[in-house]
Amino acid sequence: MLKRDGGAAEDIAREVAILKDLKLQLEAARAAEAPKEDAIDRKALEKLLLHRMFVVPAFEIHGSVAGLFDLGPPACALKANVVAEWRRHFVLQEGMLEMECTCLTPEAVLKTSGHVDRFTDLMVKDPTNGECFRADKLLEDFIDKLIEDNPTMSQAEMDKHRLVQRQADAYSPEEIHAIFQEYNIVSPTSGAALSEPYPFNLMFKTSIGPEGTAVGYLRPETAQGLFVNFRRLLEFNGAKMPFAAAQIGLGFRNEISPRAGLIRVREFCMAEIEHFVHPEHKDHDKFEQVAGKTLQLFGQDDQLGSGKARYMTIGEAVATGLVNNQTLGYFMARTQLFLEKIGIIPEKMRFRQHLRTEMAHYAADCWDMEIETSYGWVECVGHADRACYDLKVHSERTNVAMEASLLYKEPKKVEAWTLKPDGGKIGPVYKKDQKAVKAALEALSADKVLQLKNDLEANGSADVAGFTIQKDMVKFKFAKKTVHEEKYMPSVIEPSFGIGRILYCLLEHSFYTRRSDEQRAVMRFPPLVAPIKAGIYNLKVTPATNAHVARLTELLSAAGVTNKADTASGSLGRRYARADELGVPYGVTVDPDTLTRDTVTLRERDTCAQIRLPVVALAPLIADLCAGRTTWEQAMRKFPVVNAGGEGADDEE
Question: Which reaction does it catalyse (predicted)?
């Protein structure tokens, strides 16, 4: 400003020196209050989460049930902010079509998708008390303890055990049983020999209607509702491809042995994307925007070899074929950017590629975003190229075409089998339905016509749209024809977010204790997602200051800034500490100057630094800070600094 206005050189130099000094003070304050790099004290975190009512056991007064939790006010607001940012980051910025489908799902849908037969985990049972365990997790825990109890174990032997551990959820029942025998794994509670592993279906089964004859399930994922609505979504999108649909909602899984808090539960929030694309054209027009983003990738070969992940740009990963295609890579990079934005520590994120033995037979490539926690690496976001499997099975089961069209720039001449329905043969059999039969036959694509021809030659009859077609009802002809479009069944790229798991990882990554006082816990949520954006306090509790607190509460609320007033007796430092435990990024204090000059102090949580500003500027500043439109450093340059922060900065309050 001075330079632009023609200020004197010495004035400019003085201002620059002040700014440099301010920056050094701020950096020192951040370093002084930075969290320690020690392993997280999970018990202290769990105590805080319960004490501040982030998370509580569901139905606690009735004894609770494993795997069911209630989110209290802070976590509920935190989740809402995370979901809102997910919508902005994906649905809004990518122009996705959002739906809300039912949780209750008819059996036919999940039978078709394969969930009824294959949505299972391997389970072992303790025959002495009936207790059940998930086989792969039991194996993983056993190997962790084996290595922990043998500190002199050689690196080669440790690597051998870790290799077994990394493949735990990819083994067949026979393979994992043999490994249990080799390790002599027994029941962790009774020490008894365990049953052989067998598949346990994870879906909650119910009946629909009072008769009890219609079987249904609580959905294990939100995706199927989007797949069965593909035709309507395509029509809504003006038949344009590619496009993406999204859904946020509850999923249900009857987990064998829920544990690890919010990481393995029986009811959870999911946010899923189904990106429909031509199976031979999986490039993404925005890929170059993220091609330079560096990710930590743990590919199949590294898992079975060195056991170490490697850093690589997503552009290089796609170019070398490590990641199958641009669209899959684009969403992987966008996922990393989203998680960084909401407060997940970048160094504690990696993408692990599914091993061939754990990947679905139809999948082209799958990568899980895993986040490191005190429980180890936790799968939080799946990224799968599901090919055209889902649309294909639903189309075959219902005889409904799940196709899109690719218009050619110029018409093409092709040779193909065509058919002509024989009305003289169809009419006597189907009478009033003959028009529907003819329409179904004439709507068949070239591939379907060839398939029908082969089926009729082999069996004499075939099913088309629920009608039995006899060999003499159609005539086939091999001829040249002009085509203007290609009918195809789209492939699907699916990013699937476990919101509950992401929420837990955010809670753990945000928790630390101040270097100046290990008893003072802080939740360092980014202002963007913090459940409460501002705390409001009065230095001295009087009717006059209470009135100003009430006025500020209304002012901030009207500006859309969530806030919480704390006018309890006791030191201001204690009130700051309570707010820090809730992750409140900014604290507003009413003091004598508020009464005379209508100014307040504003404290920043992580550095404890404070500035003084007019009340009229308060709400816009906090709103801008929380939205990322300005930074705390910029605010410290704009308004007078009251306290530069750092070690023990709050002690004098």
Answer: tRNA(Gly) + glycine + ATP = glycyl-tRNA(Gly) + AMP + diphosphate; 2 ATP + H(+) = P(1),P(4)-bis(5'-adenosyl) tetraphosphate + diphosphate
